[in-house]
Write a structure and sequence with these properties.
binds ribulose-5-phosphate, Alpha-Beta Plaits, single chain, 26% helix
Amino acid sequence: MTQDELKALVGQAALQYVTPGDIVGVGTGSTVNKFIDALAGMKEQIAGAVSSSEASTARLKALGIPVFEANAVGELSVYIDGADEIDGQGHMVKGGGAALTREKIVAAQSRRFVCIADDSKLVKVLGRFPLPVEVIPMATARLVRQFAQMGATAQVRMKDGAPLVTDNGQHILDVTGLQITDPLAFESQVNQWPGVVTVGVFAHQKASVCLLGTPDGVKTLTF
Ligand code: 5RP
């Protein structure tokens, strides 16, 4: 099975966590796009979605799924999103699609985080994938030095020859050379550095369930 087919498999499997009448929290990325396409098949049964990015909002609306502002609704029963890495405890690295801040906001608003991923995303220790960190542009150079003091290398994510600008008008640092052995402590530490908007470690907002696409089918991990 190709990676694309594995993503479609878990996108479809995630529908079992959607209850009729729900407003569904929706993440961002190529795996979530498969979920959105599958969700369109039951759009008459749900109230709508809260989206974590302009890209997902556009896809949801194009398929006729109503999108609500996060502030307009209360707690959501489920948030469904992909990950760049997930460990055996449900801690994740996210933000490969630069949507980490809104993803963390919608995840925090939801009772349950269902992660959908192909099996290439499962790791023993977080840190193989360059860690995305959304930052206020004026703090970039100092934050690069602060990561260097940890022995890591941070680089500004570029797009079309200029720093990528997120949906929130900020920049992304991608940090390599990390071994995140204590994700909860790491997330707390980096999140309080001045100029950091959001660090892409999701330990405080970890997954409750992971639907992992494998060549043998969908494997369900619960945390
Ligand atoms: C976007 C994310 C995505 O969930 C993550 O990058 C995984 O994406 P994909 O499903 O395309 O592999 O965090 O900010």
